[in-house]
Amino acid sequence: MIKRIIIIGIIILMITVTSSGCFEEDKKETTESVELYSFYVDDDANPSWYNSTHFKTIQSAIDNSSEGDTIFVYNGVYYEQLLINKSIELIGSDQTKIIGNITGQMIVAWITAEAESDVFFCNFIITYENKYDYTVGISCSSDNSTIKNCKIKNCGYGIAVSGINNYIDSCNFYNNRYGLHISNAKFINVSECFFENNTKSGLDIYGSSYSNIKKCNFLKNKNGVSIKPIYYSSIPEDISPPPKFSKNNKINLCNFIDNIVHANLYPQSYDNSFDNGSVGNYWDDYNGTDENNDGMGDIPYNISEFPVQDNYPSMNPFVIY
To answer: Which pTM does this prediction carry?
Structure first.
C-alpha cells in the first residue's frame, strides 16, 4: 500500500510540472500595438476591441481565416461546436475552455478531412456539462495534424482520430468513456499523455496499425489500453470484407497503475509490441525480480494469452514530463 501511494504521488507530481507550451511562446500578444497572430478571440472583451481580426467567437475567427493563419484564443468559457476545415493553427491560453452540448453534431471540435493536413490545435480544455456515451471532444480525420496540451473530460470519446501521421502530445484524458479512440488509422503518434478514470478504455486502438505510443500514464481506467480489429458484422457474410486488423502498434516507456485491466488485446490483433527491444513499460502488478540491477525485470510480463509479452518490464515507474 505504501509503495502504491508513493507511485501515485510521483504520477501527480509529473502532471503538475508538465509544460503547457504550444511551441508558440514567441508569438504572444505583448501589447495592443504588437499583434503577432493572424486573429484573436475573446468572449468578454470591451465592444470597441472587436474588428476584422478580433472576434467574440472562435468559429467566427475560423470562418474568416485562410490557410496558414494562426488564431489565438484568450482565457474564457466558449459554448461552441467548432468546424475546422482548413490548415490553420488554433492556440488557447492555459484555461481556455470549450463546452459542447448534445444538440447538433455532438462534436466540440471537428478537424475535418477537408483541412487535408497540418492543423495545429493546442492548449484547450474540452468538455461537456454532462457526459453522454456518443459525444466526441475532438474528432480529427485530417492527416499530419497535431493536438497538443489539451485536457479532455466528460466525453463519450475524448479524441477520435483517424487519418495518417497525426500527433497527440501532452494531452490529459479524464472521466471519459474512451479517452483516445484511434480508428481506421495509420502512424498515429501519442506521447506524454495522461489517461485517468476512463470508464471503457484510456486508449482504444480500433482497426489501426503502426501507431507509436510512448511515455504515457494509464491510471485507474477500466482498460488502460484496448487493441482490437474492426469486424463488419452488420454486412452479410457473403459480401463482408475481412476484418481490419490492428497490427504493428508499439507501446513502451508507459506507466500502467491501478487499471482494472492494464492491456486488453482482442483476437486478430497481432504483431503489437510492448517493448522496444531493451526497455518496456512499468506494470504495477509485475512481481518479477531484477537480479542484475539493470532496472528491467528478469522475466517478461505476460499481457494476454495470445501470447503477448513485455520482455523488458521496468521495475520502477518512468518519470514523464
So the answer is: 0.88
CA distance 155 to 131: 5
| Residue 175 domain boundaries | 2-19+54-310
User: Do residues 60 and 79 touch, judged by C-beta distance below 8 A?
Assistant: no
Give the total number of structural domains in the chain: 1
In a domain, 133, yes or no: yes
Alpha carbon distances (Å) from 58 to 84, 92, 128: 10, 10, 17
Return the C-alpha torsion angle 143, 144, 150, 152, nearest 10.
20
- The 10s digit of each residue's pLDDT in 238-257 is 444 455 789 999 999 999 99
Residue 168 covered by a domain: yes
H or E, element range at 251: strand 250-252
The answer to whether residue 195 sits within a structural domain is yes
Q: What is the CATH number of the domain that holds 305?
A: 2.160.20.10
What's the pLDDT tens digit per position in 47-103?
999 999 999 999 999 999 999 999 999 999 999 999 999 999 999 998 899 998 756
